[in-house]
Amino acid sequence: MMPLTMSKEGETVTIRKITGLDDTRARLAEMGFVTGAAVTVITRAAGNLIVQVKDSRVALDRTMASRIMF
Fold this sequence. Notes:
This protein is of the alpha+beta class and 70 residues long. The chain has helices at 22-30, 62-65, and strands at residues 12-14, 17-18, 38-45, 48-53, 56-60, 68-69. 19% of the residues are buried.
């Protein structure tokens, strides 16, 4: 498994695991980041990502993106 920060622009990946504290995992789940969900990386800038998950675009900083494994 690799963190979402290792994905490339335009790449669609499937979430396999989310790490971190319960509060962090719950917050990511509220935004649609759950195991089995497809995530497309739209833009990368200085390690931060804009991704599309379900019908929403979400900005993630490097720390949060590194907790999402594909």
